Amino acid sequence: MKRAVVGLFLAGLLISVIHWMTQPGEGWTQQRSKFHPVRSAMSQENPQNSPAPKIALENFTRGNVESDPTWALKPENPYPINPELLWQNLEAVAGERYQTGDRRDIQDYLVNQLEQLNFSPELQTFDQGVNIVARQQKNPDQGVILVAAHYDTVLHAPGVDDNGSGVAVILEVARLFGDQQTPLTLEIAFFDQEEQGLLGSLAFTSQAENLENLRAVVVLDMVGYACHEANCQQYPAGIDPGAFLQASGVKHPDRGEF
After folding, report:
1. Averaged pLDDT for residues 185-208
2. Gyration radius of the chain over CA positions
3. What sign results for the dihedral spanned by CA atoms 88, 20, 251, 163?
4. pTM reported for the whole predicted model
5. How much of the chain exceeds pLDDT 70, in percent?
6. What share of residues in the chain are helix, strand, coil (percent, to 5)?
7. Which residues of 100-120 are buried (b: 16+ CB within 10 A; e: fewer)?
């Protein structure tokens, strides 16, 4: 597999999952101008605890993104991924999202993007923050697929990989499926305060109406980092690619490439 932004690959993988499952029968703001927010992210993100290897920076540069990824051009793929839009959304959400004001800015951006994509986002507030939930009201009684990511960051982190990458992929999924007629309903959720102890997702799951008719849940976190060395994929323990991952082209399940 050629070097590319892992988010692009995962977007293709995720879109394949949704397409398969929907077949019938189934802060840092002030310093932002000094850095390129995406390309410098791996060296800026929590540098004291986990300095990023050089390969991570290389994988994140625009020059290493395949202009026409092979999986995006397959004739059987009816949903062409737009790498430029993925990149634009990644740049748009880059920046500290720790303080309330910073998180409010990203909330406004996500709501605006979802509305443009024919979703009707709802702000679900809880004591410590705000979740953004948008469901296509098509056939919720037939089943719902939830695709989610957290949008907050830790203090003093640009939050590009953790978790702007997941947010950008989900916005691309929303773009591709916003006007599609599918038997199952797609629900988008952006969780707040994940870094403070999964508070947003706990608040979301505490409301019974959010869990009605769920058929599947896909949660994306830190999908912008790749490790191409053998045995670097250590989590989950004893991971097995299984039939689905093998069918999706995963050849090295011990590497962080999928």
Report:
1. 92
2. 18
3. positive
4. 0.68
5. 58
6. 40, 15, 45
7. eebbeebbebbbebbeebebe
